Amino acid sequence: MYSSPIGIIICKIVLFFQFIVIFSIIPNVDKVSAAPPSDYQLTFSEEFDSPTLNYSKWSTSYKLGKLCMATATDNALKFANGMISIELDKTGPATYSSGTLATHGRSTPQSGQQPATIFSQKYGWFEMRFKAPQGSAIHSAFWLVPENQSYQKLVSDGGTRQSTNEAMEIDIFEQLGLYPHNIMVTVHYGASYADNQHLSESIEYKNPDIDFSNNFHVIALEWLPDLLIWYLDGNEIFRSDKAPQSPFYIYANLYYGCGWTGSIDPEMLFPKHFDIDYIRVYKKVPALAVPASDPFL
To answer: Do the Cβ atoms of 132 and 175 come closer than 8 Å?
Structure first.
């Protein structure tokens, strides 16, 4: 068609602009996994392929069953397509139900199961593939809490906790449905947690090209002896040197109406779903050396 040199140049220019147009309309594709480096081995895996919850891995109790304005219930845990969906629903004029997962504690009375087998780990790679619901006052979370019993009492039974200088909570992520393009990651440490006098290191990562309610994303925490590193879809987004030195449990929750997460929207349609494809934990091999100094002292 274009036999002359000028014709060939014109053809190349046309093809180049066609490529630019086609490339610009290809939608963003989420990464399926943000797998850890090769020197990690799997220590805990929940793929949610079964039609019911595996109570040998999970407890469903949390803070006397309250998730702010929502009440935790096993009925909120839905299974389909190889995933678990924590469902937030309106059950009355001002009552709501939701669900929680934890690797320690006791199963709820309605489950009829024995207390869950405990899983906790110090250091490693903690990963989830998820999609979070959109809407005011909705709060999806994937987080870690320490094994020590004083903190466990606070989390499980609404008790108090003594002041300590250790890390008290690692939020692998918190996603507020009011801001579907943002995600928060945090480590809480320092003084009294119960009196809200502790310290935190945190970032609210914002990306207008990401909508956590529309597509699945992979969040991961790499916990080293002297460093915490957060990754979103394989890209580092934050790091902190406040790495704790004791094992932590895993939690995943869907809260509603916590006050700081936005006002209640009377027009919002229910139910809402926090979809989780998998939760995986890895440990570095060989075992990492403990640092000579404690970063909290």
So the answer is: yes
Could you tell me whether strands 40-46 and 217-224 are parallel, antiparallel, or unpaired per DSSP bridges? unpaired
Q: How far is CA 226 from CA 122, 171, 234, 236, in A?
A: 12, 17, 21, 17
- β-pairing, 95-98 vs 70-72, is parallel
For residue range 138-149, list pLDDT tens digits in order.
Answer: 999 999 998 875
From residue 10, alpha-carbon distances to 14, 15, 279 in Å are 6, 9, 52
Domain boundaries along the sequence of the chain: 1-30, 34-284
pLDDT band of residue 17 (cuts 50, 70, 90) is: very low
Question: Who wins on pLDDT, 167 or 237?
Answer: 237
> Any idea which of 231-235, 239-243, 292-296 has the lowest mean pLDDT?
292-296
3-state secondary structure of 150: helix
Measured CA to CA, the distance from residue 274 to residue 75 in angstroms comes to 14
Highest CATH level, class, for 34-284: mainly beta
At 148 the pLDDT is: 74
Q: Please enumerate in sequence order all residues whose Cβ is within 8 A of that of 249, keeping only pairs 6 or more positions apart, or say none.
A: 102, 103, 104, 118, 119, 120, 144, 145, 146, 147, 152
